[in-house]
């Protein structure tokens, strides 16, 4: 195995502690009789444990070794894979080196573990070659990633030569991309050493779709129109969704990402204390073949906070223009994002209401950087009842409309007032009370 791994050119740059690298080292020690059987078994079991952990995290099944190799291939970002993501596999000298690597991986796919199992008296490789997960559907994993990896792994296992292997991998890069951006739809960031940022996939993102959000049709359509223009490569604007809490602002953005994910839309959630990293984030994603929404939830600033200056510069005001594949979508309970005080209003001109204060003008200018602003106001009593009735009917609640409205009115009086969130919580409460097999 270590001799095959040593032949890798494009895909040979791997962390020393990754499973493939460690497995190659184990087989080198095995062939050169460098360690005792007990030591080899311990090291093998450590890597088997890592494979099982990966299988649990991503919901892998069947042949875990082949699943892992497939996962390695589709997450390995290199000049060849990123080029394939953008334009597909064109004719070029680099294809010769890629096919060399795929010849190696095809050999690794069908590596014979029989000899080492027989000599060490173990059967772990046989077990993971036909693995059956227990209660797989109950585990928390990204089903979208799992299905893609398992399906591709099966096709690669059936490839008759490196040409077919090459075709399967490059088609995957073209259709889905490479790295975690190709497999996941939403991410957070965390800071690494030396100011670098790392993207962390959000595996349990809400699967809500726009039709699940009752009401707010005009608001949703504005969001859809802007996002569709964005993913189709046309001009689009940054968007601010403002209004009362619980009205569906955050849910709308999550739904938009779910709707347009197949067209290459991805979301990166950034918190206020991370605004200083915005430039680094944009530098990492500006040349990728995806459309990115940088999402900021519950955006607002107190009088003493200055992070808004980072955001203002990035949106529209730095030396480098914002890349065409990036938009900023934000939600806020405040129309102007920044809390105004009476001190800010001391020198307001009464005739036309203009703020003459330079400080206040700088603060208020931030909201004008969003080309589209959408108001999610608190629903009226009638709209609230409509939301309750629609959600209850979808959930299968067996109550009359009159009774639902009466109970919904009681609920909102003691649970934070009228809002879409209150309506959803009320319906959840009713659904939780229902006993299977009994009439309500």
Secondary-structure map:
Layout (H helix, E strand, L loop, with lengths): L1 H4 L13 H13 L5 H22 L5 H12 L3 H9 L6 H16 L4 H7 L3 H5 L14 H16 L3 H15 L3 H4 L2 E6 L5 E5 L15 H15 L7 E5 L5 H12 L4 E5 L8 H8 L5 E6 L11 H9 L9 E7 L25 H7 L7 E5 L4 H15 L5 H14 L5 H14 L7
Parallel strand pairs: 1-4, 3-6, 3-7, 4-5, 5-6
Antiparallel strand pairs: 1-2
Helix pairs in contact: 2-3, 3-4, 4-9, 5-10, 6-10, 12-13, 17-18, 17-19
Description:
- There is one protein chain.
- This protein has 440 residues and is of the alpha/beta class.
- The chain is 49% helix and 9% strand.
- It contains 19 helices and seven strands.
- The chain has a seven-stranded mixed beta sheet with strand order 2-1-4-5-6-3-7, with helices on both faces.
- Strand 5, helix 15 and strand 6 form a beta-alpha-beta unit.
- Helix 17 crosses helix 18 and helix 17 packs parallel to helix 19.
- The longest helix has 22 residues.
- The radius of gyration is 27 Å and the shape is globular.
- The termini are far apart.
- The C terminus is likely disordered.
Task: Give the tags.
440 residues; alpha/beta; 7-stranded mixed sheet; disordered C terminus
Which residues sit in consecutive blocks of at least 5 with pLDDT less than 50? 435-440
Q: What is the radius of gyration computed over CA atoms, rounded to a whole number of angstroms?
A: 27 Å
Beta-strand segment tally: 7
* SS element count, helices: 19
- Strand arrangement, major sheet: 2-1-4-5-6-3-7
Mean pLDDT: 85
């Amino acid at each position: 195995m270590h001799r095959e791994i040593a032949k890798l050119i494009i895909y040979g740059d791997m962390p020393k502690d990754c499973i493939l690298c460690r497995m190659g080292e184990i087989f080198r020690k095995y062939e050169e009789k460098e360690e005792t059987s007990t030591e080899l078994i311990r090291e093998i079991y450590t890597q088997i444990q890592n494979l099982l952990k990966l299988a649990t995290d991503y919901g892998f099944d069947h042949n875990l070794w082949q699943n892992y190799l497939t996962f390695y291939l589709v997450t390995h970002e290199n000049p060849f894979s990123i080029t394939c993501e953008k334009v597909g596999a064109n004719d070029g000298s680099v294809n010769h080196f890629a096919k060399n690597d795929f010849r190696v991986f095809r050999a690794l796919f069908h590596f014979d573990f029989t000899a080492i199992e027989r000599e060490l008296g173990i059967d772990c490789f046989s077990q993971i070659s036909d693995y059956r997960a227990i209660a797989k559907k109950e585990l928390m994993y990204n089903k979208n990633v799992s299905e893609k990896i398992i399906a591709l792994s099966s096709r690669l296992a059936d490839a008759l030569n490196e040409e077919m292997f090459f075709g399967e991998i490059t088609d995957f890069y073209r259709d889905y991309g490479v790295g975690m951006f190709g497999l996941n739809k939403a991410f957070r960031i965390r800071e690494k050493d030396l100011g670098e940022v790392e993207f962390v996939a959000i595996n349990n993102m809400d699967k809500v779709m726009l039709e699940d959000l009752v009401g707010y049709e005009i608001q949703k359509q504005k969001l859809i129109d802007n996002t569709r223009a964005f993913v189709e490569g046309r001009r689009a604007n940054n968007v601010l969704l403002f209004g009362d809490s619980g009205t569906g602002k955050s849910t709308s953005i999550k739904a938009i990402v779910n709707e347009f994910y197949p067209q290459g839309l991805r979301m990166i959630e950034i918190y206020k204390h991370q605004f200083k990293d915005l430039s680094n984030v944009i530098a990492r994603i500006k040349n990728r073949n995806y459309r990115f929404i940088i999402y900021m939830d519950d955006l607002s600033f107190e009088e003493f906070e200055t992070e808004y200056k980072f955001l203002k510069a990035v949106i529209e005001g730095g030396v480098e223009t914002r890349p065409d594949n990036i938009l900023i979508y934000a939600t806020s309970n405040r129309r102007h994002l920044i809390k105004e005080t009476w001190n800010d209003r001391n020198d307001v001109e009464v005739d036309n209401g203009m703020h003459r204060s330079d400080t206040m003008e700088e603060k208020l200018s931030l909201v004008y950087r969003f080309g589209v602003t959408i108001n999610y106001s608190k629903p009226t009593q009638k709209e609230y009842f409509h939301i309750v009735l629609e959600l209850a009917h979808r959930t299968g609640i067996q109550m009359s409309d009159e009774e639902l409205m009466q109970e919904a009115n009681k609920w909102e009086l003691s649970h934070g007032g009228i809002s879409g969130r209150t309506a959803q919580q009320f319906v959840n409460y009713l659904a939780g009370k229902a006993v299977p097999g009994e009439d309500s």
